[in-house]
Amino acid sequence: MQAAYLFGPRDLRLVERELPPLRPRDIRVGVEYSGLCGTELHLYTGMVFGQPATGPQPMGHEFSGTVVEIGPEVTALHVGDRVTAIPGGPCYQCQLCRIGRPSMCPNRVSLRSGAWAPEIVLPAQIAWRIPDDVSDRAAALTEPLACAVRAVDRSEMRSGDRVCVVGGGPIGLLIASVVKASGARTLIVSEPRPFRRELAHRLGADVVVDPTAEDLATVVRGATDGMGCDVVFEAVGHPATVETAIALAAPGGTVMIAGVADRDHVARFKPQELFFKELTIRGTKGVTWGVDRALRWLGKLDLEPIITHTLPLSEAQAAVELALSGEAGKVYLRP
């Protein structure tokens, strides 16, 4: 079958690949929809936030599909089940797993092939059955929505809070959707691209700001009685937006770093500002316990506006370039 592999920066190719054979606890899934994640865009452009790849790597980890084969030891899933998955799961045996930090697990169980392909093989333990009230199209948002749920959880946002999301890309928009549904009093989204600002409006943002044309800090103060935001989510992954997020937080506020920065990036801030404002700064990584609730949210939230383009697998490179342009929300491939 044909599958999309990345051979180097901006070198994405469709190649003929055989799926790995099923192990006893694996499943094979026919892919219906596969989303483009910011992680894959980073890899495509050559941004290194982890260890550099040692060879061509399969692409795609956000997907929905139908089980077409199961290993002999798989009991919780059956052929014909509609499923989605997370890209990797914890071992539940190491010290970090045992103390309740599975997102930090060094022995993660991962997908065995990429979802930018007609079929994918993965361990059954990281697959989730799709509820009947969730479409295949919506279900492909499960993993990024679970990341958004996790980010909001870690922020300890309360109903009635004033919240700002810095960055209106797909993950920022998903965070904004969860924040709005969770009872934020005021939701502000900062995004320079007009297309994505309109998406933020459609998803319920109370104030949408173009930070290249307006002074974001002034807008935030005006929308929060001069206090700043109780919670600020940074969803870009750049030192400048991290610094902006810290400046926007109200006294006693929380800054959540949800964007993935280059490992060489360095942000600067004034320690005295953290001291006098008693700020909390937290990072968020992965889905942890967010998948089950993400699947429940998908049955209730209308996230269709986020999914703006669906292209065939043959146009994978065009899909990536479209996502990078900022003139799109969530881009899907239909293998």
Notes on the structure:
It is a single chain. It contains eleven helices and 18 strands. Helix 6 (194-202) links the parallel strand 12 (186-190) and strand 13 (207-209). The mean pLDDT is 94. Helix content is 28%, strand content 28%. It has 335 residues and is an alpha/beta fold. Strands 3, 5, 6, 9, 10, 17 and 18 form a seven-stranded mixed β-sheet that branches. Strands 13-12-11-14-15-16 form a six-stranded parallel β-sheet, sandwiched between helices. It folds into two domains: 2-141 and 303-334, Medium-chain alcohol dehydrogenases, catalytic domain (Quinone Oxidoreductase, Chain A, domain 1), CATH 3.90.180.10; 156-283, Rossmann fold (3-Layer(aba) Sandwich), CATH 3.40.50.720. The radius of gyration is 20 Å and the shape is globular.
